[in-house]
Amino acid sequence: MAPIPGSGLAKGLAVTLRTMTRKSVTEQYPDALPDLPPRTRGVIGLFEENCTVCMLCARECPDWCIYIDSHKETVPAAAPGGRERSRNVLDRFAIDFSLCMYCGICIEVCPFDALFWSPEFEYAETDIHELTHERDKLREWMWTVPAPPALDPGAEEPKEIAAARKTAEKLAAAQTPQAAQTPQAAQDESAAAPAEPREGER
Ligand code: SF4
Ligand code: SF4
After folding, report:
1. Fewer CB within 10 Å, N- or C-terminus of the chain?
2. What is the pLDDT of residues 27-38, one digit of tens each?
3. Choice from 106, 110, 118 to test ligand 1 binding pocket (greatest atom count within 8 A of CB)
């Protein structure tokens, strides 16, 4: 059946009218900052103290955009007769965000919780080389990493927290009798101690 003349125009106008009556979804960035979810993949922060230079992140990165340099250092034996140990010392840690595709694999595979997502995204540069963030800059991003979400109320207590709580309870239990005894013990000690000779008695 042949289309009714002008029906295309009517359909187009109907779409225009429908859209005109809807609320606009345009974000007025940069005047109004977007309300991003806390787990947004904006930039990667490095918590250097946790990094053992295991190289897993650099090996697993599909874009090969993580650059790590390190050297080995000998640590003397902890006890006499013990063996010396060697450990990796980080010299360079950099991520090239001009290559990064924000897949998050590096963060997932890091066994030592040294990499974190931050929702910060305002780091555009006019020079592409500036998008390689070196270790100091990656460390600065750590300040923008949001706190982890609260645990589900019904969730099992994490093993680390349970262990820390038990240790704190043991310490508190060990200190309580001592604290209770301390004033009495101080009194007993002062009563038992010989009196200091006075100036004229010497
Ligand atoms: S997010 Fe993905 S692409 Fe980016 S550095 Fe990590 S592993 Fe590489
Ligand atoms: S995987 Fe983690 S610990 Fe290993 S080199 Fe990368 S950031 Fe460091």
Report:
1. N
2. 889 999 888 887
3. 106
